[in-house]
Amino acid sequence: MGRKWNNIKEKKASKDANTSRIYAKFGVEIYVAARRGEPDPESNQALKFVLERAKTYNVPKAIIDRAIEKAKGGGEENYSELQYEGFGPNGSMVIVDALTNNVNRTASDVRSAFTKNGGNLGVSGSVNYMFDKTAVFGITGKTAEETLELLMEADIEVRDILEEEDAVIVYAEPDEFHAVQQAFRQAGITEFTVAELTMLPQNYVELAPDAQVQFDKLIDALESLDDVQRVYHNVDSED
What we know:
Blueprint: H1 2-16, H2 19-35, H3 45-56, H4 61-72, E1 80-87, E2 93-100, H5 103-115, E3 120-121, E4 131-139, H6 144-153, E5 158-164, E6 167-172, H7 177-186, E7 194-201, H8 209-223, E8 228-233
Antiparallel strand pairs: 1-2, 1-3, 2-8, 4-6, 4-7, 5-6
Helix pairs in contact: 2-3, 2-4
């Protein structure tokens, strides 16, 4: 199970190294969530979720406020949510979530990233079925046993709980995200090292060094696209 958290940490570290790009992507995601409902996180669960994620990435308040104000002002930009599925070297699988105001541009850019880096774009459903949508939280200051007891008292069943370095990682059903979050808050836990709805692979693959280099280039190319919000894969990146 540890490899799950390892890959999530790796993804966060990669994003932390590209903060300006990540902040811009969060700005779009916040704007879209605010436009599709009330621009108030207390009455808009989608917006509330995005803001919680933004907090774990230390997105500046100014960027958040600007995106919400833009939505309040009736911004004219319309975005579509898209998901692409594809394959990298040696049986690796990739899922790409995108938000775009130009579907043709995004499709072309994603396809190009795959073909130029040893991969190929698949059809809808070719990869998704090998991943499970999962709520994942990282907290500090408690043991796995204490965390399990806390969640059991709140009548919440989880998929898994493990201790990894200085954090406790909780994997839960996606529709339990807010219940888990609320249970933690009632216990006085308001800061999370990770608070995500993610796609975890059912099985992992390991790549030979040369294939790993090519795969890393593919992931970097996809994550560098402005329209791409998240990239998930099934490559075990543990040393």
